[in-house]
Structure to design on (289 residues):
């Protein structure tokens, strides 16, 4: 494999620079530092992306034993995710589907062997991800963990929200204001005391109670993105709660497409597409500049 091979891919237009690094030899942590992540994600002078996914075996990730604990042994692969600003995130719902798709397209896993799911390590813990019959992927994201109530302030308007952890923090704000009218070029303000590590904020319109929502999202470490898988899970959970239901299946429309979120008494399953757009190599010219 060419050492500096890269892929571009997306899940419902949440796009990523993907770095195949199975043996941890190409992108050691001092090479893939925050500045390199920002350069790769830069949309004009770099490749462009909402984040970076390094596809690496867990044994080559220094913090994998700490974040996976006894699950380390069943997670051969680790989704080393970075936001476009270089920060680490615990979890990424669109990214983890793309991660499995890349393992398949790179010949590292057989899709037919993935229908029952494969354990993937993440900084939010182990997650089971599998190939769906429609060509997409499902990810068992674990249960939504309510963190209380919060508020997002955008353009002088306060939006009440449900704070929810999907491994990473979210504030899902159900609103009657048409989300298409919102200006998300600036991140909404939130209560830093409630979210000491920052937060992803979803603005959510209910299309059909407890069954169908649409959302826009301002992501921690990125800004507005075309989709957020964990945000879709948080929004679905909040919409079910608002509809008086603890379980159900919610269709979530995002600017970049459609996701499905099934919530039961124990967990949350996210289903949607993943696409590899292109593959190539970083040039010595760019790497050396
Ligand atoms: N887009 C992702 C979430 C990526 C991480 C997020 N920005 C954070 O910092 O928590 C998704 O699909 O879940």
């Amino acid at each position: 494999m060419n050492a500096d091979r890269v892929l571009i891919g997306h899940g419902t237009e949440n796009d990523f620079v993907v770095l195949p690094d199975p043996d941890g030899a190409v992108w050691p942590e001092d090479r893939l530092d925050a500045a390199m992540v920002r350069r790769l994600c830069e949309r004009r002078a770099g490749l462009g992306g909402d984040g970076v996914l390094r596809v690496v075996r867990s044994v080559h990730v220094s913090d994998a034993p700490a974040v996976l604990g006894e699950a380390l042994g069943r997670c051969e692969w680790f989704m080393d995710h970075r936001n476009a600003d270089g920060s680490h995130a615990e979890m990424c719902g669109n990214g983890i589907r793309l991660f499995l798709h890349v393992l398949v397209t790179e010949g590292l896993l057989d899709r037919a062997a993935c229908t029952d799911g494969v354990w993937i390590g993440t900084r939010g813990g182990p997650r089971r991800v599998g190939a769906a019959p429609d060509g997409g992927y499902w990810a068992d994201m674990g249960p939504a963990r309510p963190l209380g109530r919060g508020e997002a302030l955008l353009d002088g308007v306060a939006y009440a929200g449900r704070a929810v952890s999907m491994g990473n923090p979210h504030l899902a704000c159900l609103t009657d204001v048409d989300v298409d009218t919102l200006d998300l070029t600036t991140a909404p303000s939130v209560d830093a005391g409630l979210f000491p590590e920052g937060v992803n904020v979803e603005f959510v319109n209910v299309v059909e109670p407890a069954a169908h929502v649409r959302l826009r999202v301002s992501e921690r470490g990125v800004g507005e993105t075309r989709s957020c898988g964990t945000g879709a899970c948080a929004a679905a959970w909040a919409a079910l709660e608002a509809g008086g239901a603890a379980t159900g299946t919610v269709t979530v429309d995002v600017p970049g497409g459609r996701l499905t979120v099934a919530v039961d008494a124990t967990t949350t399953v996210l289903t949607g597409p993943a696409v590899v757009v292109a593959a190539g190599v970083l040039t010595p010219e760019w790497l050396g500049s």
